[in-house]
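Renewal narrative, Specific Aim 1. Our central claim is that a sequence can be written position by position from structural information alone. The example that follows is taken directly from our test logs and has not been curated for this report. It begins with the structure tokens describing the chain, in the order in which they were read.
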């Protein structure tokens, strides 16, 4: 297959491209990415040049999408504005990319008569106190990010319903692993712990997330791409649910730091208390998560410790300004 992977220079997209080119030696991948602050060329270093290419373009640009799609057999769409806190600060770009951009890709896939797999999130269901969301749970998004992803999902479903398009959706819980931008909880805590910077915990830190190691999500995406049915939604949840404060404590242990670094800060607006996904439908296609949180967090911590060059430039650029706006404090300590 030749795949168009949109948003493939970001965290999950780049892990998926690395996985796919390894697991399918005959496959080719074209990444189309706008290279926002979240897109990084380094994430795609070392891929086989005869089977991989990168196009810098916006998914909202129909001509660029059509050109990149030439000869492709499917689109896997990771492209999105993906950070909840940034969506609270400035929602506009989220609506544009996550809803309109998805529509542009769907039109191009429909014209070409190929499959469109939409990468979506458990956040479209909102928060759940007990039990787990299934694929038929109603949509009740809380943040502008979650609402924009829900909007994108509805356009995907409408294209199947109205035009018979070969479009389908996979919804995942919180991913973590190598190459995740430090604006997100786990890499933020790892890097702050390494540097001895305070660790901002929103509210009481008792919000629960359903952690999924990114490589497990990549195998789930591959399974749904190859075996999923058009018009269907597939949930992919991680094997472990933990309150944020417990995640922070595990990372502090790995870093050999004590809890004095924890700093409870003002809560996120509209903060969802708990996410939990039932994954039986995806497991019915033959997928199963293989990496527990204990295993995955150690692998992730070691990756950040050993790949200083990957994050050193990030901590000195746009992220530093964002951090000051978001937390009201400068990233302090030098790397130790
Ligand atoms: P990310 O922010 O790391 O990467 C997003 C990528 O999309 C970046 O490379 C960025 O440059 C690119 N992009 C943004 N706007 C674009 C545009 N208009 N045109 C082309 N490219 C554009 O995000 P991620 O964490 O890798 O998430 C990938 C996808 O998975 C998103 O759709 C997100 O909603 C979804 N998702 C993420 C998680 C998670 O825990 N990270 C969980 C469930 C679902
Ligand atoms: O659930 C899937 C979603 O997971 C994806 O759709 C999103 O793209 C992804 O960003 C992620 O969203 P979250 O908001 O759950 O992830 P984040 O890492 O921002 O926050 C995880 C939890 O940690 C959440 O309860 C908020 C809390 N948190 C986060 C940050 C950045 C803190 O307490 N302090 C922080 O500084």
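The sequence written for that structure reads:
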């Amino acid at each position: 297959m030749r795949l168009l992977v949109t948003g493939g220079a970001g965290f999950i997209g780049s892990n998926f491209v690395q996985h796919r080119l390894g697991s399918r030696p005959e496959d080719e991948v074209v990444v189309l990415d706008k290279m926002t602050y979240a897109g990084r060329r380094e994430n795609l270093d070392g891929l086989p040049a005869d089977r991989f290419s990168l196009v810098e373009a916006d998914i909202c640009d129909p001509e660029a999408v059509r050109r990149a799609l030439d000869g492709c057999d499917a689109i896997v769409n990771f492209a999105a504005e993906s950070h909840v806190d940034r969506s609270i600060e400035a929602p506009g770009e989220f609506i544009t990319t996550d809803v309109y951009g998805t529509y542009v890709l769907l039109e191009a896939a429909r014209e070409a008569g190929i499959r469109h797999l939409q990468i979506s999130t458990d956040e479209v269901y909102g928060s759940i106190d007990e039990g787990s969301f299934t694929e038929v749970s109603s949509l009740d998004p809380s943040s502008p990010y979650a609402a924009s992803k829900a909007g994108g999902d509805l356009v995907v479903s409408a294209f199947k319903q109205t035009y018979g398009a070969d479009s389908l959706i996979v919804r995942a819980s919180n991913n973590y692993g190598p190459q995740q931008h430090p604006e997100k909880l786990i890499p933020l805590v790892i890097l702050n712990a390494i540097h001895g910077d305070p660790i901002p915990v929103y509210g009481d830190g008792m919000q629960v997330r359903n952690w999924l190691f990114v490589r497990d999500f990549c195998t789930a995406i591959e399974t749904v791409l190859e075996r999923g049915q058009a018009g269907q939604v597939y949930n992919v949840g991680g094997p472990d649910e933990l309150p944020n404060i417990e995640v922070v404590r595990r990372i502090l242990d790995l870093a050999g730091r004590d809890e004095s670094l924890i700093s409870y800060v003002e809560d996120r607006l509209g903060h969802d208390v708990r996410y939990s996904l039932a994954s039986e439908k995806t497991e019915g296609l033959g997928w199963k998560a293989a990496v527990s949180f204990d295993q995955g967090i150690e692998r992730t911590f070691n990756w950040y410790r050993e790949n200083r060059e990957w994050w050193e430039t990030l901590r000195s650029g746009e992220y530093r300004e964002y951090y000051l706006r978001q937390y009201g404090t400068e990233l302090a300590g030098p790397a130790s």
